[in-house]
């Protein structure tokens, strides 16, 4: 008798993003996006944070997204490898600027539509369900330069046209959609999160929260449109997840952790409930923010998501005494080092129990099905003398997190599926490195773009194949 808690129709798979995998950054009519402007190296973080008043390509810089792992030309080979593992679902994103190169055109780019239709048909050939993110950190640069990106209300109608095109053109091929990837990252990394560039002297908090409001209205609007076009469509929000623990039981630390969790969950509160939470006004008052919100906006926000998708890499620690000197630079979401946990080579703490806590928190708060759409270990992989990659550290990380998923399901949390990041090595969003590898499949590529781009399964490839085949029962 099996004691397995995973449902029979559980969606096992993996995840990538267009801007970290496709390459071909100007091929097929595609326009430049925000990610195409983010270099590898010392200027990367300043660019991501929106601290440069304008952004343009510099011939002396290397831009990892321009070729990435060339998924654009190699997707058939890559999908075949994912099918070998037994994938039931494949999370990817559509590059907005492949469909609308500038972002404000009236008619879409047919070559871009053809590429994604062919990609989704390739998935269908193997019985793999696409899970598609509409905006995964890549706003068309024309919209940044002409409108100020999401600081402008005009972005709502541009996004509406783009999303409607996708829902119509790929109807019958895609039924699981996400609107904005890790929407809360806008607060921490404004340019990479939402194409926001700051002007000297302006209230950055005002700009970020107004931009967030426009994204929230756009998300709710296209959620309604997705349901109108096909009632079978399921639309989710997407949170960069991971609870904040109080650094101590000092009440001020507990209060700070609660406030940090609220900051994280703020957008999901709106997307899941259909209105701003009661604590929002205090946040706005404290930050001198006045949101331009109309009655029509409030009506649109009532179109809530069908499920909550989230990433989980690590938990975080908060203290009332947090400052720049005691918080980790390992992630754009600042956190104090947890003395009870080990960390990855890039300083991200490894905390499987934190996944169970996060899942219970999200379900207690929203009572909507969850979908874990990113989770994984960035690590340096080496090919041994036998020509193999024995990534037992990755297997151990994933194994313990799958056990935590089982525990959360046993707690009563409904989980739709699991798409660990990234199913194939790709450009790391945080650092722009290839050496920070996540995949089950190795890609011969280094941090400066050298290498054959050849693909090779790692030990974790065969392990995960067994996990899927046994619906999560055999984790050894």
Brief sketch in words of this structure:
This protein has 476 residues and is α/β, with parallel strands linked by helices. It has 15 helices and twelve strands. It has helices at residues 18-21, 44-48, 71-85, 96-99, 110-125, 141-147, 154-169, 190-194, 204-229, 251-273, 280-286, 295-301, 352-366, 392-410, 459-469, and strands spanning 11-15, 89-93, 129-135, 176-180, 234-240, 244-246, 307-311, 316-318, 370-374, 415-418, 441-443, 455-457.
Reconstruct the topology from this structure.
Blueprint lengths: L10 E5 L2 H4 L22 H5 L22 H15 L3 E5 L2 H4 L10 H16 L3 E7 L5 H7 L6 H16 L6 E5 L9 H5 L9 H26 L4 E7 L3 E3 L4 H23 L6 H7 L8 H7 L5 E5 L4 E3 L33 H15 L3 E5 L17 H19 L4 E4 L22 E3 L11 E3 L1 H11 L7
Helix pairs in contact: 3-5, 7-9, 9-12, 13-14
Characterization of the model:
α14 (392-410) links the parallel β9 and β10 (415-418). 50% of the residues are buried. This protein has 15 helices and 12 strands. It is globular. By secondary structure, it is an alpha/beta fold. The chain has a single domain, classed as TIM Barrel (Alpha-Beta Barrel), CATH 3.20.20.
């Amino acid at each position: 008798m099996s004691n397995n808690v995973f449902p029979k129709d559980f969606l096992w798979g993996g995840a990538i993003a267009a801007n970290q995998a496709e390459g071909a950054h100007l091929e097929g009519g595609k326009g430049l996006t925000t990610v195409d402007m983010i270099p590898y190296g010392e200027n990367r973080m300043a660019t991501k944070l929106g601290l440069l008043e304008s952004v343009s390509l510099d011939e002396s810089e290397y831009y990892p997204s321009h070729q990435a792992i060339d998924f654009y030309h190699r997707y058939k080979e890559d999908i075949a490898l994912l099918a070998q593992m037994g994938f039931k679902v494949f999370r990817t994103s559509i590059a907005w600027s492949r469909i609308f190169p500038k972002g404000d055109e009236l008619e879409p780019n047919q070559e871009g539509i053809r590429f994604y239709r062919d990609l989704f048909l390739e998935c269908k050939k193997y019985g793999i369900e696409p899970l598609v993110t509409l905006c995964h950190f890549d706003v068309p640069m024309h919209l940044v330069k002409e409108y100020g990106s999401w600081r402008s209300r005009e972005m709502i109608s541009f996004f509406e046209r783009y999303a409607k095109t996708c829902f119509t053109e790929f109807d019958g091929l895609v039924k699981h959609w996400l609107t904005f990837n890790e929407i809360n990252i806008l607060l921490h990394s404004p340019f990479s999160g939402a194409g926001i560039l700051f002007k000297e002297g302006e209230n950055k908090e005002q700009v970020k929260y107004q931009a967030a409001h426009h994204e929230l209205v756009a998300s709710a609007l296209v959620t309604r449109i997705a349901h109108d076009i096909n009632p079978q469509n399921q639309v989710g929000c997407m949170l960069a997840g991971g609870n904040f623990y109080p650094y101590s039981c000092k009440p001020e630390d507990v209060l700070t952790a609660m406030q940090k969790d609220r900051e994280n969950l703020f957008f999901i509160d709106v997307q899941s409930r259909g209105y701003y939470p009661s604590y929002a006004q205090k946040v706005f008052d404290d930050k001198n923010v006045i949101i331009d919100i109309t009655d029509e906006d409030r009506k649109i926000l009532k179109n809530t998501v069908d499920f909550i998708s989230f990433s989980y890499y690590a938990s975080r620690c908060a203290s009332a005494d947090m400052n720049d000197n005691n918080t980790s630079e390992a992630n754009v979401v600042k956190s104090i080092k947890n003395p009870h946990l080990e960390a990855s080579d890039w300083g991200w703490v490894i905390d499987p129990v934190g996944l169970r806590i996060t899942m219970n928190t999200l379900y207690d708060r929203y009572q909507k099905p969850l979908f874990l759409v990113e989770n994984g270990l960035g690590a340096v992989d080496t090919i041994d003398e036998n020509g193999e990659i024995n990534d037992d550290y990755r297997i151990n990380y994933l194994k313990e997190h799958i056990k935590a998923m089982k525990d959360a399901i046993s707690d009563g949390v409904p989980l739709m599926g699991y798409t660990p990041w990234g199913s194939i090595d790709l450009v790391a969003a945080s650092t722009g490195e290839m050496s920070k590898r996540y995949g089950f499949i190795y890609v011969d590529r280094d941090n400066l773009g050298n290498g054959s781009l050849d693909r090779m399964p790692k030990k974790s490839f065969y392990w995960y194949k067994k996990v899927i085949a046994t619906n999560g029962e055999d984790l050894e």
